[in-house]
Amino acid sequence: MVDIRMQKLADLLVNYSIKVKPGDRVLIQGPTIAEPLLREIYAKVIQAGGHPFCLPVVSGTDELLYRYGSEKQLEHIPEPISLIYKTYDCRIYIHAEENTRELTNVNPNKLVTRAKAHRELVDIMMKRTAAGEFRWVLAPYPTNAFAQDAEMSLLEYEDFLFQACMPDLNDPIGYWKRVAIRQQKLVEWFKGKKVIRIKSNQTDIAMSIEGRTFVSCHGEKNIPDGEIYTGPVEESVNGYVNFSYPSIYNGHEVQGIKLWFKEGKIIKASAEKNEDFLLKTINTDEGATYVGELGIGTNEGITRYTREILFDEKINGSFHLALGAGYPETGSKNKSSIHWDMVTDISDGEINVDGDIIYKNGKFLIY
Question: In Å, how far from its chain's centre is CA 216?
């Protein structure tokens, strides 16, 4: 028997997040462990008049590629995938893991090689998204691996996941429409502002947002959602950040990250755990040493760290920086093969914009 919450989540993704229209070509991707949700999404796309193409991901294949693949094989991008990114209208990706540490022991140099190979796809996706030609959404599926990382049972994690994705189960779409209205007020307020400074425990960082656009995240690209973000002026970031939460990228958990910036670029980086991986990843390319995104979490329903960035970057009372590629719709010009979100708590901190404190102790003061 299908969980009714799974059906409602599929409906939310298809009919609200990417708004499938008759004739739309829709790529549906996700690991086979997420088959119940993939099947529901497939049905909803058909009912909406779209043309679904389901591309399941077999567990363990990434590990096999990194273990046995040559450099040439790591750099190879299948032509059908490239064609889809260039021509399809929509993409729904379901994030599910049977083992979140599958790639932990992979040589970081191999991960960098693979990331560089995907640079073209990342650029295509971001350009087409900014132009309104490509609609996409990323959503989670509950697994034991995610539950263990979050220190919950699977049943507890399912409840947590669906509550975060659909706080109003009776009207999921209506809920995110209301969030959109509320957050648009913040986005409008930020128009024309110039300098933002964030201060909290072991963090003091400033950057220019002049000429840049804040974007409201209310369920159209991520589910769960709840943040506003922008792309800071690339060479304007100065100061230091202590990331209070561990950051996971390509299966590697990096703890105690500290970054120092001067004129936009990282001039010093350290970590208490997996520092070598941190240093190699931020040296993937020139853009990886700059900030592509500044985001502020607004989801009051996500109150705990889970080791899953889909949830953690939206924690109310947090902000995150993404090293690497920025989103063109914000005005960001930063390009890179990576986009690595790092989150820190500012529930006891403040955000100052053009000399005025507009955020304190986890709450905006300008609503």
Answer: 14
Question: Which are the contacts of 180, defined by CB distance < 8 A and separation ≥ 6?
Answer: 216, 218, 219
In degrees, rounded to 5, the angle at the alpha carbon of residue 133 between the alpha carbons of residues 131 and 138 is: 100
CB burial string 132-169: b at 16+ within 10 A, e below: eebbbbbbbbbbebbbebbebeeeebbebbbebbbbee
The CA-CA-CA angle for residues 215, 220, 224, to 5°, reads 100
Q: Residue 16 belongs to what H/E stretch?
A: none
Predicted model pTM:
0.87
Say how many C-beta atoms besides its own lie within 10 A of residue 62's C-beta.
17
| 43: nearest Cα among 6, 86, 82, 75 | 6
- Could you count the other beta carbons within 10 Å of the beta carbon of residue 123? 16
- The 10s digit of each residue's pLDDT in 307-333 is 999 999 999 999 999 999 999 999 999
What type of residue sits at position 327? Y
Distance CA 203, CA 352 (A): 13
pLDDT in tens, 98-135: 999 999 999 999 999 999 999 899 899 989 998 999 99
**CA 327, CA 113: separation in Å to the nearest integer?**
22
Q: Reply yes or no: is the peptide bond before residue 142 cis, omega within 30 of 0.
A: no
Beta pairing, strands 238-242 & 258-262:
antiparallel
Identify the CATH number of the domain defined by range 4-166: 3.40.1830.10
Domain regions of the chain by residue span: 4-166, 182-364
Phi and psi torsions of 117, nearest 5°: -65, -30
